[in-house]
Amino acid sequence: MRIPFTGPLPPPLIIPPSAVTKEGAVSALTHFLKAPAGSAAPLSEHAQQAKTKTVLLTGAGISVASGLADYRGVNGTYTQNKSYRPIYYHEFIASHESRKRYWARSFLGWRGLNRSKPNPAHFAIGDLGTLGLVDNVVTQNVDSFHGLAHPKLKTVELHGFLRALVCLSCRRLMDRDVFQQRLAELNPAWAEFLQQLLASGALDTENPVERRRLGFRTNPDGDADVPGAPYYTFRYPACPHCLRRPPILKDGSKGHVDVDVDGAWTSSPSGSAPSEGVGILKPNVIMFGESIPADVKTAAEEAIDSAAKILVVGSSLATYSAWRLVKRAHEQGMGIGILNMGGVRKEEVFFGELLPERHHGRGSGDGHNRWEALRRELVRASLPAEEILPLVVDAIRSSSSV
Ligand SMILES: [Zn+2]
């Protein structure tokens, strides 16, 4: 995963123009989801029948109404905190100090994330699944809200999930709540600080400005920032399984997990060989600089390919792994809908055939483009998903009960 594009985005396109209002957007999205097929490419009758569904692609914007910060909205991490830079995979792997800092911040931020719940947009997506219009969801989010809101509708978690950690040696998962308890045991002073933060109300407010006033910042990956905190004092455990049964290393020797008497990770004593990094627990998310596993990538591509249309909800597609999925859908002639507050990275690539300047002065030569635009279902609205999607579900339900 690369650091997302963080430059300013152009103002959002609105397609059709009536989608500028709530009613117009609901009507356009209802039509989009119900349209039998969105493909511009001629399909056989069989393929037409199979390919009528919409695949959902969601990003941080859909979880803002759950109280999580997003990256690029008005109160987003990149907007409010210009110096924010997430940890890179190689830093996490290589450096005990980086992991201390990461886990200290995560320890403080977890409660806020763990208390947050799916919002009406997630539940509306579940309803679209029940109505038979959506078979797959691909999400960039690591908050597990889709699984909680609609356990029966398949979700590909493109960037992993925070609900568990993975051991980099034995690949076993560890529940994040169990790990949180271990962190509290190993760090009584930090646990007390967390209690103070709770008492101050910094974790009760969903307003990022108010949180900052209380000396506390949170980011969408469950990371919290307390300026000046002594991160170097933080202690974190190693994988309990690898501690009991050290794994055999590639060279055939037995691995060694470096922990102190309490089971907290220690760096190798100075002068000794550097630790092999056995039993490192990592949040089960794709960090920057880490690649998406091949099976997850394939599952996401299959979810796109099996659908006739793609609807992006709450993503500015600033992350390339998400943008390329929409590009893939576009190249297949699929219908494209985007419901996102504010601009979207290079969205003119997807909607270009509808833009006036593309048609201007081309005479009759633009006939093909116009025809394609009409054959391909396109919707673009810049309104809150938690308000729009439940209304779309209501509209579809009332139209099909007539
Ligand atoms: Zn392990």
Query: Can you count the beta strands?
Result: 11
Radius of gyration: 24 Å
Low-confidence stretches: 270-274, 357-368
> Structural class per helix/strand content?
alpha/beta
The CATH homologous superfamily of the largest domain corresponds to TPP-binding domain
Side-by-side strand order of the widest sheet? 3-2-1-9-10-11
Walk me through the structure.
Belongs to the sirtuin family. Class I subfamily. This is Deacetylase sirtuin-type domain-containing protein. GO terms for molecular function: metal ion binding; NAD+ binding; transferase activity. It holds the Pfam family SIR2. Residues 33-399 form the Deacetylase sirtuin-type domain. This protein starts with 21 loop residues before the first helix and ends with a helix. A hairpin with a 5-residue loop joins strand 4 (160-167) and strand 5. The protein is globular and about 65 Å long. Helix content is 39%, strand content 12%. It is an alpha/beta fold and 402 residues long. The chain has 17 helices and eleven strands. The protein has two domains: 17-66 and 119-159 and 292-400, Rossmann fold (3-Layer(aba) Sandwich), CATH 3.40.50; 77-116 and 161-285, no CATH class. The protein has helices spanning 22-34, 45-50, 77-80, 89-94, 96-115, 120-130, 145-149, 176-186, 188-200, 208-213, 240-244, 294-305, 320-331, 348-351, 356-359, 367-375, 385-400; strands at 54-58, 134-139, 154-157, 160-167, 173-175, 217-218, 224-225, 281-285, 309-313, 335-339, 378-381. Strands 3-2-1-9-10-11 form a six-stranded parallel sheet, with helices on both faces. Strands 5-4-8 form a three-stranded antiparallel sheet. It has a two-stranded antiparallel sheet with strand order 6-7. The protein binds zinc ion. Zinc ion is lined by residues 167, 169-170, 172, 239, 241-242, 279.
